[in-house]
Structures
1.
Amino acid sequence: DNADFTEYVNNLFADLLSADMVSLHAYVEHPKDFGINDYEITLGRYDLDNPDDTSDYTDIISTLKSFDRSTLSAKQQITLDELLMYMENELEYSDLYMFNTQLQTTTGIHVQLPLLFAEYTFAEKKDIDEYIELLCDVDGYFENMAAFEKLRADNGYFMEDTLADEVIES
């Protein structure tokens, strides 16, 4: 095994998973066990200042391509191939972000978030503290989402009126 590759992949896992607290909490009971020591307690945000920025993808792809395949184990080569394919696909379709919305009539985040909060597990005191912080983040989360939906609308990508009405009613 290539120790540098393993370290990079572990750090990438930690960085990607800690982008939003709900995912982090759902997948990892003790973040410190995975080297995740410093994370923001947030539901996540759209980057409204630089929505076209793809540097995260290009940086990851560049780093992955810098590893010499011949120094990787068979398992690491599979991991490399899968990560490259995933990141290259994300980069290839990154210009379609305006088609993305978290507001769908039956599966939108406005429907799922109460369920996510209801199923949130509490194993230790920090889980309660983080849960309360997440609850306090809901307004900011939806304000950011509304700003993104306005950006979509300003660019002609807002949902049809009938779907918008259904989302509002749900």
Note: The chain has one domain: 3-169.
2.
Amino acid sequence: MLGTANADSAWGWGGNDSINGGAGNDSINGGVGNDILDGGLGNDILSGDLGNDTLMGAGGSDTLDGGEGDDIAVFSGNRADYTVSETQEGLLVTHLSTKGVQVISDVEFYQFAGATLSRAQFIASEPPVVVKPEPPVVQPEPPVVTPPVTVETTTSTTLAEGSLNLVAGGSSNISLTGNALNNSITGNVGKNTINGGAGADKVNGGSGNDTLYGGSGKDAFLFTTKLGTSSTDRKVNFDTVKDFNVKDDSLYLDNAIFKKLGKKGSEQNPVKLDKKFFTVGDKAKDKDDYVIYNKKTGVLSYDADGSGKGQAVEFALLTNKPTLKVDDFFVI
């Protein structure tokens, strides 16, 4: 396993691992097995844990902890290139030229260019009289592939394990499916079918007439794109929600689109809809009934002037016709 130029954290778990932190200040734990740990450049922390491990601090000032087993610390150059002293934290080893410092604990052997010493010999600078233990046999492992946090797509896609967000581009009519994590899924301008899957998901059809499923978990259905007009109801940006659950799910209305609902709220910090802005029935009953839910049909509408002359715009259908309350709505 090879790290990046950033500060990496790596854990070997079981098996005989070979881990190189690369550049950056890395933290590496070999876990169970006979591991080879190379901190690379930077100020690194290497922990052998269980097994007979080989630890290499390389450049920088490093902390090496062999853990259990017969462990080896490997140094570049000769024994004469280093000074050593005992501290409460372990052996303090300093390179005379680079001034790099290594703090070493629970390591049994110290390997230099011309000799391998026990701990006592290293401190006393005696010639080597011990035999270097056999190096661990490291089995090659397949490279670790980390899935991207956000996946952008123009085709039907199911999120791989480990990814969080799925964003569709283009205008094709495609299907988007989440995984078991808390996903954020956004459709394109086409007619999408979106299923959040397990987890607490945010499902946003985008533009277009979309079919939305939250799946299991506490899901939010987002409406953040321009609505149609009263003359194009159900023809422009009209979404169908198939599995709304009043116990777990919510409806998020973007205040940039639903402008009469106030300026407070965001996707990260949603604000509950003011109860005076919501009504159940087939039309607005007073001037500030902006969000209208028809329980008989399951249709949600937005009326920008309440009971005024302007017509309401239908923007969603909840096919199971749940009993919605104002507490189900949030402004973002």
Note: The chain has a mean pLDDT of 91.
3.
Amino acid sequence: MIIKNSELLEDINYNLKLTKWILKPLGVWSFVTRDSNLTSKLSSVLIIFVNSFIMFITVMPCGIHMIFRETDQVVKIILMGPFGFYLTNCCKYYFIMYRSNIIKNCLNHLKADWARVKTEEDRQKMIKSVNVGRNITKLCAIFMFSGGVSYHTVMPIWKGSTLNELNETIRPLAYPGNEIFFNCQKTPIYEFIFFLHFICGLVLLTITTGACHLAAIFATHACGQVDILKSQLENLLKKENPKTNDTIDNRIASIIQSHVRILDFSKSIEIMLREVCLVEVGASTMIICLLEYYCMIEWSNSETINILTYLMLLTALTFNIFIFCYIGEILNQQCSSIGESTYMINWYKMPGNKGKYLMLTIASSRNQRQLTAGGMLDLSLHSFGNIIKTSLVYLNMLRTV
């Protein structure tokens, strides 16, 4: 069944709907789409500036307070978690913008793949891949925003007001340190700072979700293309139809072209996410360790809300790094399986010596195609296990503090 142009546009819009929703509030969307104009790019620059300004004025006082003012080592460790989360997300934010041209190329590649679809069966395979990517994004967003919103709103409210040594009422905030510059306890200054912390939290959580979404949506698309390629291999030796140019030569040409496109796309995904994955691995190792430590502290203090919040954040960050490692594993397995699928067809029944044209497909499939952390560490399920074990080692070190 031939797909109509209206269905093509609908499918592309469905595929990129979440991408647009996530990248637009970050000001990135205008730089990765061909449909943007000068006005939209200027507004995106303004959004990026506002987001950066909000993150800076919100969390930097926390860093100053942690480094120069706080003397309690346990409190310093407690502040290292949110401050580290801020720094890593800032890095991811600017790395995503740095790789905006590659993201744009990947989006154009994705759209071109949709335009190449000619059968309803292939279309359904691509839609299935899109749904997997969307579901991964939704799970990441649910985990991240549940814990993050609770940290920025529920925890400070639940903690309640306290009295300092001057018998002044101190209302808690998600990030301390604003009192260095002005009295943040007065109304409406306190309410404004509280709201600013909440907005900053939303920006940080959106960055985390956006990085996970880009990895999920592109990797699942590549896997969908592999499934379509395998289907083409299975149909390679079916009866020819010269009237429609459906010959073995044309089928082989289509298979080789599709395989090259998959390899190029996989390489682009790895380059696009190289720095993001490096930051993700390093940050997850430390922040997961800190969250485990926070859970132990709050358990000893019997703070139920704090325990639940930290557990949600721990689940979210563990799920996040697991997704990156799982995507790297699946991407490698799927690309490698092309060679096996090519070898398993009845290539020896092909007329003449046409089977030799598939030898390069088998050979090139032996090269690994997976996500890497800065080109130094291959992301796989084995890597995920090592990250968790390393965080537990650091946890044992923290327990001695």
Note: The first strand starts at residue 162 and ends at 163.
